Amino acid sequence: MPTIADGEGVLCPSCGASDAVPILYGLPDAEGFRAAEAGQVILGGCSLTSSSPDTHCVSCGHDWPSGRRGA
């Protein structure tokens, strides 16, 4: 099942922009593909580790782990 982190209201640690979006891992379903096409998420692929980034800055392209992913 895809894993998604809510990027809303998160400031980019690189540029300070507030337009971060979640990174979606796993095989997206139709809703996931629609969200990616609409720019609401970034597709992160199938490999997910404890250090994988879960947030993407639309302004500068920086990806980072927010530390909010559940264990």
Q: Tally the helices.
A: 1
Spatial strand order of the main sheet: 2-1-3-4
Taking all Cα atoms into account, the compactness measure Rg is 11 Å
Relative helix content: 10-25%
- The shape is globular
Mean pLDDT: 86
List low-confidence stretches.
1-5
Structural class, judged by helices and strands?
A: alpha+beta
Q: Which range does the strand content fall in?
A: 15-25%
Span between termini: 15 Å
Order of helices and strands: EHEEE
Give a quick account of the main beta sheet: strands, pairing sense, barrel closure. 4 strands, mixed
Number of strands: 4
Task: Describe what this molecule looks like in 3D.
It contains one helix and four strands, in the order βαβββ. It is α+β, with helices and mostly antiparallel strands. It has a domain of 48 residues. Strands 2-1-3-4 form a four-stranded mixed beta sheet, with helices on one face. The N terminus is likely disordered.
Secondary-structure topology with pairs:
Layout: E1 20-25, H1 30-37, E2 42-45, E3 55-57, E4 63-64
Parallel strand pairs: 1-2
Antiparallel strand pairs: 1-3, 3-4
